[in-house]
Amino acid sequence: MSAPFLRQTSDQRLKKAMMIAGGTKHHAELLKPFGLDARETTFWKNGLGLLDGMITELEGMEK
């Protein structure tokens, strides 16, 4: 593993892994190395919380 890869955030590594897989892997297989499980309600609550924060930020920009 190269040093630049190690300096990437887990979010960046997850995105890169998903792009490299190109839809050939099941989502559970992609998420597992990152300690994520789409069957857990916390996975979805956290994801929706991120989206809510982004929407709030965008709404604040229009003022």
List keywords for this structure.
68% helix, 63 residues, mainly alpha
Biggest pleated-sheet summary: none
Query: How far apart, in Å, are the first and last alpha carbons?
Result: 45 Å
What would you report as the Rg, rounded to the nearest angstrom? 15 Å
Strand residues, percent: under 5%
Shape annotation: extended
Question: Which residues form runs of ≥5 with pLDDT under 50?
Answer: none
Number of helices: 4
Number of strands: 0
- What is the ordering of alpha helices and beta strands? HHHH
Give the averaged pLDDT, no decimals.
Answer: 84
Specify the helix fraction band.
Answer: 55-70%
Structural class: mainly alpha
Number of domains: 1
Q: Secondary-structure map with pairings?
A:
Elements: H1 3-7, H2 10-21, H3 27-31, H4 41-61
Could you describe the 3D structure shown?
- The protein is mainly alpha-helical and 63 residues long.
- It has one domain.
- Helix content is 68%, strand content 0%.
- The chain contains 4 helices and no strands.
- The protein has helices at residues 3-7, 10-21, 27-31, 41-61.
- The termini are far apart.
- The relative contact order is 0.08.
Brief characterization of the structure:
By secondary structure, the protein is mainly α.
